[in-house]
Write a structure and sequence with these properties.
Blueprint lengths: L12 H9 L24 E10 L10 E2 L2 E2 L3 E5 L4 E6 L5 E6 L4 E8 L2 E6 L3 E6 L5 E6 L9 E2 L3 E5 L4 E6 L5 E6 L14 E3 L2 E5 L4 E6 L5 E6 L20 E3 L3 E5 L3 E7 L4 E8 L6 E3 L2 E5 L5 E5 L5 E5 L11 E3 L2 E5 L4 E6 L5 E6 L5 E7 L2 E6 L3 E9 L1
Parallel strand pairs: 2-7
Antiparallel strand pairs: 1-33, 3-4, 4-5, 5-6, 7-8, 8-9, 9-10, 11-12, 12-13, 13-14, 15-16, 16-17, 17-18, 19-20, 20-21, 21-22, 23-24, 24-25, 25-26, 27-28, 28-29, 29-30, 31-32, 32-33
Length: about 400
């Protein structure tokens, strides 16, 4: 049974305190610490200019859903929990098409190779035309899907909540192969998205394992435990890989687990290069030789990609339930529970700018060049351009 009905941009401060104190999830939790005031901004602060903003239904509306916009070359496609799919022009925000799917969506959209793929809590996986939103196919994988599907030239890969990995034909949804993984008795209501590269599928599991499968056959080339926890109870031992994986230079795969480790794995040898103790459920970012991570208590860290040593740590946003970090232009951006985006120096983690971009919690940030795309809890999607004095 899933003990976390909601997981909003990472484990909430209240639940984290309960875990650290060894308190049952069913008992009353202690009050979360109050965040510190925002740090002062420098005189030469970096600013963001709003390019456009649009609304996509009711967004995730507080639910624990992996509904994150897909940023393409020409368009941005977003989905809301009540089943609205919407495509807008990436540069202008002009609406291209809108589709009421009638599906209670929990994961996606993944848009590539002419299709947009989404999934539901009932195990439905559906594909729509990337050009106009028209339906293409719908199949059932038998279990809820809470991880964004991955789309390759002729294959869609889906990780279901029961631990089964499904490879489906991109054109028809027909099953090509399945691979079963073990799900522990207690796990987070979140999974890392499968990652496809160089004819391989990389998957992080709820049991803390990382594996590389052949895309065509589903045969496992290797499997490695990369997230561990030696807690006294099953609750304390949870070490799910819930954050999306990061592959750099097609050679090193970075993964991070809940109350476990950030790990660098050589995909050719399937050997762990290094690991660093940190707890996160947010996607990673990389730049200037660092891997950037926002942890479950609200710290932002830069970890050297080669050595696994901490380059810097920014603690001023503790208990603000941070979004994933993302590199935009020359800086690092991270969002918080109050709708603010904070801009940090990549080299030192110092605050370079701050702006309110939403009226509610920021769920995910994405970037293309010097443009930042913000997706908030209420379904507002906006684009902002870096401006430096």
């Amino acid at each position: 049974m899933n003990i976390f009905p909601r997981l909003n941009r990472g484990l909430s401060a209240v639940l984290l305190l309960a875990l650290l104190a060894g308190i049952s999830a069913c008992s009353s939790s202690p009050k979360a610490p109050e965040p510190k005031p925002y740090p002062d901004l420098p005189a030469d602060r970096i600013k963001l200019k709003k390019l456009w903003k649009t609304s996509v239904g009711d967004g995730i509306d507080g639910d624990d859903l992996r509904l994150s916009p897909s940023i393409g070359e020409q368009h941005v496609i977003a989905a809301s929990r009540e089943g609205l799919l919407q495509s807008v022009e990436r540069e202008s925000g002009r609406k291209l098409w809108k589709k009421e799917t009638g599906l209670p969506l929990t994961a996606g959209p993944a848009a590539a190779y002419g299709v947009v793929v989404v999934a539901t809590a009932k195990g439905e996986v559906a594909a729509f035309s990337e050009e106009d939103g028209s339906p293409k196919w719908k199949v059932s994988v038998g279990s809820a899907v809470v991880a964004t599907p991955a789309v390759a030239a002729d294959t869609v890969v889906v990780l279901a909540a029961d631990g089964t990995i499904h490879a489906l034909a991109r054109d028809s949804g027909e099953s090509r192969w399945t691979y079963n993984t073990t799900v522990p008795p207690l796990s987070l209501h979140a999974n890392a998205a499968p990652l496809i590269a160089d004819n391989r599928v990389y998957v992080g599991t709820s049991g803390g394992k990382l594996m590389g499968l052949d895309l065509n056959t589903g045969v496992a080339g290797w499997e490695l435990r990369v997230a561990t926890n030696t807690g006294r109870t099953e609750l304390e031992r949870m070490a799910d890989i819930a954050a999306d994986l990061l592959l750099v230079d097609d050679s090193t795969l970075y993964s991070v687990g809940f109350q476990s480790q950030l790990t660098a794995t050589d995909v050719a040898s399937a050997r762990r290069r290094w690991q660093f103790d940190v707890s996160s459920v947010n996607a990673l970012a990389e730049g200037l030789g660092n891997v950037y991570v926002s942890d479950t208590t609200g710290n932002v860290l830069a970890v050297d990609r080669a050595s696994g040593k901490v380059s810097w740590k920014q603690p001023d946003f503790a208990w603000r339930q941070l979004s994933n970090p993302v590199v935009v232009g020359s800086v690092l951006a991270v969002g918080d529970n109050d709708g603010y985006v904070h801009l940090l120096g990549q080299s030192d983690g110092q605050v370079r700018g701050r702006i309110s971009v939403a009226g509610g919690p920021l769920v995910t940030l994405q970037a293309r060049g010097d443009v930042l795309y913000c997706w908030d809890d209420n379904g507002d999607l906006s684009a902002w351009q870096i401006r430096q004095r």
